[in-house]
Amino acid sequence: MDFGFSPRASELQDRMRSFMEQHVFPAEAVYDRQLAEADDPHALPPVMTELKEKARAEGLWNLFMAHGDWGAGLTNLEYAPLMELAGRSIIGPEVFNCSAPDTGNMELLALYGTPAQQERWLRPLLEAEIRSCFAMTEPEVASSDARNIRTRMTRDGDSYVVNGRKWYTSGILDPDCKLIILMGKTDPDAPTYRQQSMLLIPRDTPGVTVLRDLPMFGYTDRCGHGEVLFEDVRVPVENILGGEGDGFAIAQGRLGPGRMHYAMRAVGFAERALQLMCERATERVAFGGPLADRGVVREWIARSRIEIEQLRLLVLKSAWLMDTVGNAAARMEVAAIKVAALEVAHKVVDRAVQAHGAAGVSDDTVLARLFSITRALKIADGPDEVHLRTVARQELARYKKTDPKAERQTAAPKTERQTFDTKAGAA
């Protein structure tokens, strides 16, 4: 495996690191203050507009997009360290137009959208002229199993009529949100994985009602997490994404890169927490000396560094596999990093909170917010248990006999994951 970065990727890392230090970190307090003072808690703070303009001017824009001529054309391996750097700040990804749910939605439009759909929605999203949201999760069913989705999209002449209820529809309360990508059922009688479809719904379509803004461990997100009611929402047939019955397959295509992006940002969360923990340990005095002299605190720091390095290597391996053998072949690794990333990040943040004492649970540092984010993301985008199920199924499949009459194998089975070369990525 070759994790070496191209000259272009290394140069982008240097530029982004400098941009974060010079512009993003100093703007965090300004962002929070402007948000607190605004009449609308979901309005974009002016400082974010300024940061976006600077990032675009410096060419640090749409770095996530690898499809066609729409974005920077970076590989997953090249993009991974950039999103780690951006992820060290809660506001970082948005500065570079690389924040969820827009990144996943833009990838869907680039991969499956018609030219008309791309012109209407993708171009404005890439220019940050509008925002979008993704409506999949439902309050009445376990939406981690997409087969449970109840929202109906019924064909009526040249339109689909949508009825259902979604929640934690992230981004829908942003005043700039103009597009909802909704997943529902077009044919409940079709084969299991051909029942679902995705539909592009303009935010201002009659019948779309935001019932409430849902908090996340008590925090209100600027973009909002809405509970949304769809009542007889009528949308033209040409707003279908891909084709009727393609929803499940499209969702899988969206979630693969999305999980990679979550893992990349989680490494950044963990690095930020470790930095704050080390600074606190060297500055804070207790029982006659700095916290850094206490064995338990040193163990927290050492274990955090080890775990972050392990996680980073797993993320880079997954990114490399996605680039060399494709998303499907890297399915187990992609599932694994979603679990490992948030597990490590949450653990490191928890240690940093403990090192800060009362300050760690206050809003005086970013740690309390990181604590809530890392915990919530163990549920969002597929709970850990779903990804563990994927890993276990693939691992166990290697031990199943293809010939029921064959004698029991006594040696460990050979797998495609034992050795890798740098070209094919397989044994």
UniProtKB/TrEMBL annotation:
Keywords: FAD, Flavoprotein, Oxidoreductase. Residues 9-128 form the Acyl-CoA dehydrogenase/oxidase N-terminal domain. Residues 133-233 form the Acyl-CoA oxidase/dehydrogenase middle domain. InterPro entries: Acyl-CoA_dehydrogenase, Acyl-CoA_Oxase/DH_mid-dom, Acyl-CoA_Oxase/DH_mid-dom_sf, AcylCo_DH-like_C, AcylCo_DH/oxidase_C, AcylCoA_DH/ox_N, AcylCoA_DH/ox_N_sf, AcylCoA_DH/oxidase_NM_dom_sf. Residues 399-420 have a biased composition (Basic and acidic residues). SUPFAM superfamilies: Acyl-CoA dehydrogenase C-terminal domain-like (SSF47203), Acyl-CoA dehydrogenase NM domain-like (SSF56645). Its cofactor is FAD. Residues 399-427 are annotated as: Disordered. Residues 245-394 form the Acyl-CoA dehydrogenase/oxidase C-terminal domain. The keyword Oxidoreductase applies. Belongs to the acyl-CoA dehydrogenase family. Homodimer. PANTHER family: ACYL-COA DEHYDROGENASE FAMILY MEMBER 11 (PTHR48083:SF13), MEDIUM-CHAIN SPECIFIC ACYL-COA DEHYDROGENASE, MITOCHONDRIAL-RELATED (PTHR48083). This is Acyl-CoA dehydrogenase family protein.
